[in-house]
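## Example pair
The file below holds two records. Each record gives the amino-acid sequence first, followed by its structure token line.
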Amino acid sequence: MKKRRTRLRGTKTAGKFEQKKLLERIKLILDNPKLVLPKTNENDAGGKVYQKVYEDMKLAKDQFQNPPSFISSIFGKKPKDPLAKAYASSLSILDSGAPVMAVARFPHGEVHYVMRGYGISKEKLIGIQNYHHRLWARFAHLDYVKKYKLFIYSLESGLVCTGDKPKYPKELWNEVATRLKIKDTKLDANCLRIKCKSLNSEVSISNKRLNKSKDNTYSHFLKDVISIEPDCDFELNLSTFLSPLVDEIDSNILDEYQKGQINDSAFLEKSINFQKEYLVNGIEGTDQHFVVSNELLDKNTLISKLCSNKIDEAIVEDLLSEFSDNLILEQGTLADLTEKLWKDYGSALANKISNNSANNYNGNNSLNILRELYDKIIKDSLTSDYPSFYNLGESLKMLDKVIKKIKIGEKNKAIKYIDDFSSNNNMTKSLSWAILECLNSTSSRAWKYTKEEKSLGQTLTNQVQLLLDSNPNNYKELLETISESIGLGKKLEVI
């Protein structure tokens, strides 16, 4: 019975093509051992380290080509450097038949190599036998990087060692920038700036791009850097819309990003959240600021952004009269503001206007409560100084009501009132047309009016505009002028 061959787990007999390529590579490094070494400057730390390695590799090459005698092999000079030993073991592949290849699995992928020698580092065998590969080649040099604090860069053209000082290759910088499609344009604000100190080069990535990115852009610049301290050659500076007030970024968040534990969007989000928290809890003695939907606003801009009428403006003004801190509004709505301030300020304000009115609060209706309370107050206050009249005819009554709606900031309601006002009175309709002309709201309503009504309305436009621009002192006089113009007499009786 034929005895079955046994094979180590995780190994395989290489295919003919794979065998051929491996043997070709081994022959090349036999002729030129420097193929497995990074390019160096002979005067720096890396040059001195790798010169010693090279001398040992030359010895290993010579002993492979000219095997020593038995006695010499025991007592003669031998390569001492671990890389030279791995090199010598790899050369022995040339003396074997079909090599049995091991499979090493890493987070980066799988790599095949031939195990040779006792106590020889797997990583060095991988790096030497795969010196042509940009990723696996570096494995042979990890011990030297750690021991001598070297900086090695993996380029398409091979490895480059700059000694114990970083010197990022321009070729590598351009390669990364091209791959990431990053232009040289420098942004002043709201961006992530990545600066390489040794190269004195900098790129800027907008926060808009960061927010959409599921990648870690910074890691691309470190991908081909072999060093125990690759970050030392880089400066990261993230500026957001909050940076003018809070220029700090939590060091833990920055550390997570530099280690590749979070992507661009998470880095931006966490940094902004940190700044928001610091803005609310950590800054004293500064002007009041509000963050609304990731936009930094002052009080006046906040009111302008959230309020569309006088009533809402009055609500915000009164709520903020006692509130002096900074405030974050994630939803960016007026309701969000009133809910945040209801417990400490809003409920007291409601009860001040009307006793026990805050009891109507159900957990999310603070804005409705305040609007109802302020509606009457504001409307009355805005028109309280304007005269009211007895027995106005239909036309003047409609005009008076519409004008006063506009004066309290209810332009849309005023237009709707005109649209819904049912009248067969030509004079009423002419006045309506005059108002719509003043409000630039005629285009979609022209079909409702006759040629004559529009013509008469056009003649009244200037007088109606004066009424719109009136004050309490001249309102009666201007309304009487219109009354006279439409044939209803000049004298109006004030209540």
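Second record, same layout:
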Amino acid sequence: MWPFKSQDKPVAKRTFDAARQTRLVASWAAVTRSINTDLKDGIDAVRARARDLAQNEPMIKKYKSLVAANVIGSTGIVLQARVADGDKQDKLANNAIEAAWSDWSRVGNCEISWRMSMPDLERAIIKSVAIDGEALIYEHIGSVNDYGYALQLIDVSRLATTLNRDRITDSKGKVLNNAIYMGVEVDEYGKPLNYHIYDDAVGADLKNRTVRVYPAKNIIHLFLADSPEQVRGVSWLHAAMTRIFHLKKYQEWAIIAAGVGASKMGFFTSPEGDGSAMADDIDATTGELYQEAAGGQFGILPEGWGFESFNPDYPHAMFAEFVKAAKRDISSGLNVSYHSLANDLEGVNFSSIRSGTLEEREEWKVIQDWFIGSFMERVYRNWISNAFLNNKIVSVTGTPLPAAKLNKFMAHDFLARRWAWVDPLKDIQASIEAIDNGLSDPYQIAAQQGLDAEDVLDAIKRYQDLIAEKGIELNVYKKNPKLQDVNPINDVANT
């Protein structure tokens, strides 16, 4: 016989605490929707608010600078051609390719408006991705310059967010209309086919804007996807945006309150209930009784009149600590260290700043790898193909490199910016020991500093030849005989 009767209490079921419906979380309204539905309902509003913060909030202006400086740097992403004949580098071909890339990267070549160099364009793109959540770049191929290739950065607000439709098929499964999500037309697998873009940026006349269709093969759409099947990007500020806004208002109110508190203010009290005895101090326009105290002086009140002071005690002693705690929360939402974002080194010791800096640099490296893979690699493939077609990659002899060997000439690396050692002496010694014990090599050590090992050695040799020509002796070569022979193992590490 079943041992329990119908009136017995139900047995408690095990579940996630986060899923329980209790009075403490009754206001937590969360529903499961696709990422694209969430984006469709809020992408324009989030972007508008992010742009407002970027224009008017000092902390976000600093964040934009941090992103551009750490992901791109002052010199941009550096091309390193790696063309080789067997195990030997083809220096003539490498130099020719790098020289052509450097020439194309100048203002007036790489960017269609002739306003930006390639490093400038890279910084503008990564800033757009950070604030807007995405960037659109159109590839112009043809007679736009001598190389037959140029880039155009398009304002993402021109992407027709309100244009949406479901995928339609007939009874036999033939596609009649592809799905469109927020202006991006995709196939059944979510691969972009076309981009629906307004002719101009958002303006007053929204009804008469013309939408043009651009094939995806000419559009580079950059965004960091956080969810599967995500079609559009969202501002990197979104998780911290409301906190940034409220902190901004809090600080504004505190400044106003501090100004009020620094002023000697109060209220006049009249024994008769009117202001006739102080008629000279009544404003003729507003009818308000107003008297401004001079420095260290007060006016003499009529007999019987009183004065009640108003002394607000604000901002209070915990103001600074509250602001600091709020900025720490915001820096977590932006994936940057607090001391970098807030320019605050108070109470920071060497160990803590080293740990925080190294952790933050790993985040920047992740973004660098994504940027190189998603943008730089595609640009390089299309650039070199068109450069060869236009005979723009020329050796030192003046002869164009043969286009028939294009696949051979494709070999390359991109070197992203790297950072100075946090503790130079210890870090250099660690690199030397890693090389000596076979745990690393000079190429890896040089790459960690954003350098090419062969370029370093070539520079050492040129410098040695120069000082020998001048008849100069330097102590560094006397103290370190390894440098005299330009040993590639130790030279790079020691340099």
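Notes on the second record: The longest helix spans residues 350-389. Residues 486-495 have pLDDT under 50 and may be disordered.
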